[in-house]
Amino acid sequence: MNQSKPIRIVGMGKYLPNLVTSQEMENKFNLPKGWSEKYSGVQQRHIASHECNGFMGAKAAEAALEDAGLKLSDLDMIISGSGTYDYPLPNQASIIKAKMKGGEKYHVPAIDIDSTCLSFVAAFDFASKLLDGKSYKNILIVSSEISSKGINPKNWETLTLFGDGAAAMVLSYDENQSSQFIKGGQRTYSEGVYDTIIEGGGNKFFFKEHAYNQELHSFKMNGRKLLKMAKHYIPDFMDWFFDDLPYTVSTTDIIVPHQASRMGMGVFTKLYKLRQEQMKVTLYKYGNCIAASIPLTFIDAVEKNEIKRGDICLLSGTSAGFSIGSVLLKY
Amino acid sequence: MNQSKPIRIVGMGKYLPNLVTSQEMENKFNLPKGWSEKYSGVQQRHIASHECNGFMGAKAAEAALEDAGLKLSDLDMIISGSGTYDYPLPNQASIIKAKMKGGEKYHVPAIDIDSTCLSFVAAFDFASKLLDGKSYKNILIVSSEISSKGINPKNWETLTLFGDGAAAMVLSYDENQSSQFIKGGQRTYSEGVYDTIIEGGGNKFFFKEHAYNQELHSFKMNGRKLLKMAKHYIPDFMDWFFDDLPYTVSTTDIIVPHQASRMGMGVFTKLYKLRQEQMKVTLYKYGNCIAASIPLTFIDAVEKNEIKRGDICLLSGTSAGFSIGSVLLKY
Question: How many CA atoms lie within 13 A of B175 on its CB side?
Fold first, then answer.
């Protein structure tokens, strides 16, 4: 179905905490020299020290507003699209808003959308469908992620793969520009529901009855099964997504994939015989920053002038759940 | 702005775990006899035993689908609108979907919307804006809440106030019926951001560095300040919300408030001189079930024939954040 609308990314911003090289990581955790880059492809990542999700999100959001030439009072909604959070309650968008300049003064609604690693993509999709130039003129989306706390240092694969960071975008409804939201969508393949999980810390294994335990409270993924599911279901998803569009994955100008893992992105590149300049990669320098990966990679490519106004861009990835989701847009 | 659309609630369902009377609660926790009802107005509530959020949500969702005469495969999206969750990762909608009949077979997108106690209202608003009769014909919204785990038994006020339960609704786009989504909206008043909180369990006070502690990991609210904020900001919100509508709070047929507390609902009733038959209350029998309170109360009123097709209904409440939000609909 034609979902096309005149939605334009009018501002972008990011916040990255301290840089930590793979060598520093290997020294700290007693890993063989060179292991990190060899196995995960990550040369460096940023890791939060004094920062919390709210602080990083607010910084990225303020940078995006400044880039857009807008103020908080111009916004009709703030959406936090993230997989990690400062507190179990309240929602993360409320924390981010409260930490922004003008946050106390203006009563912009602050709402979270969570589809784990696809939270930014889902938020972009929902925001585009809400924006109408009347009730909703400008919506801010923020993804602020701290993955480093929930990582088990004994699991080298995840220890070296993940990074922390925040990214934000302001979307506006603007009929006078050629930018377009073309389509958004997600499919959830429930056979993989428990293959990416943090078991402890919710109601199922509540803190009170389950004291901290590195296994129970750390991020776990069944990498082999996830890769198999990605191979199997990406074609199913893409056939469904592009069915009614005058584009294909291969003819899309730019692909901004979730930086899930080098092998995961490799599957995607191989399936559609994608060219290197089409497929945007920041894994080597940011690691996997959960939902912030896609906007951080998008911003990086715009900064390098690798994404230009008018380019048809596919934001796409997999997430815990197990889901595959995409947004197609004309930048 | 006119947001009106032909959206109809076509099915509803609920799941309630074991009933616990206030007398049983008072015996168990050594409270003075009659304290619960006297101070919180809650005579009984339901409390989960073997059930998790996912289980209760799936049961409520299946009941709503059956009520609608639809199958999971008829859905275009499943939204979990809840403040509590089984696992920090993946999102709750993925867990609920996986536990539903047909959940593994059909690849309906499963996404969370979190605005704490207003999560159901925000999900209803977003779903109504997504539904277009083309890409989105039917959306299921589920709120499944287990508050009992995060309650500090030393805090009698919250101990006796909260309950557990799940409720679900199927919304459909249907131009052949007179049902309408009229308007939805929220405002977030950040000066109250830390006045309703669970501090421990996220990245701010991470499990590893902060072992379980009843104070840190329990729900806390600054009741007096929240009540003051509600009094101050409800008129601000309602003036904004009803500004462009041919209705007022007082002329709305039915008001389904969040069952936040007896005093909170009292403020609202007094402000707008609401009639008893207008204002729907289930606090005495369900307690405050977080985001599930509004749909549980709505379902209760429909079951008692107190809400009829054609009635103009206002779903409204306050939430941690601090937010006020509403949806106005013609049932």
Answer: 3
Residue B277 distance to chain A (closest CA, Å): 30
Residues 6+ apart with CB under 8 A from B38: none
What is the residue whose two structure tokens read 């939201």?
A181
- Measured CA to CA, the distance from residue A44 to residue A29 in angstroms comes to 15
pLDDT of residue A214: 87
pLDDT digits (tens, 9 = 90+) for A100-118: 999 999 999 999 999 999 9
Q: Which residues of B touch A52 (CB under 8 A)?
A: 203-204
Percent of the residues in chain B that have a pLDDT greater than 90, as a whole number? 92
* Residue pair B151/B40 in contact by the 8 Å Cβ criterion: no
Inform me whether the pLDDT recorded for B1 exceeds 70: no
Q: Which residues of B touch A220 (CB under 8 A)?
A: none
Chain B residue closest to A115 (CA)? B111
Query: Phi/psi at B319 (nearest 5 deg)?
Result: -145, 165
At B24, which helix (H) or strand (E)?
helix B22-29
List of long-range contacts for A246-252, beta carbons under 8 Å, 24+ apart: A247/A182, A247/A312, A247/A328, A249/A274, A249/A314, A250/A274, A252/A278, A252/A312, A252/A313, A252/A314, A252/A328
Give whole-number Cα distances, B270 to B37, B288, B306, in Å.
21, 20, 21
User: Considering the entire predicted model, what is its pTM?
Assistant: 0.97
User: Given pLDDT bands bounded at 50, 70 and 90, which one contains residue A168?
Assistant: very high
Average pLDDT of chain B? 95
User: How far apart are the CA of B152 and the nearest CA of chain A, in angstroms?
Assistant: 11
The 10s digit of each residue's pLDDT in A203-254 is 999 988 898 888 899 999 998 999 999 999 999 999 999 999 999 999 999 9
Q: ipTM greater than 0.95, yes or no?
A: yes
Please tell me which of the candidates A98, A114, A190 has its beta carbon nearest to residue B98. Answer: A190
What CATH number should be reported for the domain whose range is B7-175?
3.40.47.10
The CA distances from residue A176 to A10, A125, A130, A180, B187, in Å, are 13, 21, 18, 11, 29
CA–CA separation, B97 and A157 (whole Å): 29
Q: What is the DSSP string of B40-51?
A: H--SEEEE-SS-
Q: What is the 3-state secondary structure (H, E, C) of A160-229?
A: HHECCEEEEEEEEECCCCCCEEEEEEEEECHHHCCCEEECCCCCCCCCCCCCCCCCCCCEEECHHHHHHH
Find the closest chain B residue to A195 by CA distance. Answer: B90
Q: Where are the domains of chain A?
A: 7-175, 181-330
Strand pairing partners for A255? A279, A314
Q: Is the pLDDT of residue B163 over 90?
A: yes
Tell me, what amino acid is at A79? I
Fold of B181-330: Peroxisomal Thiolase; Chain A, domain 1 (3.40.47)
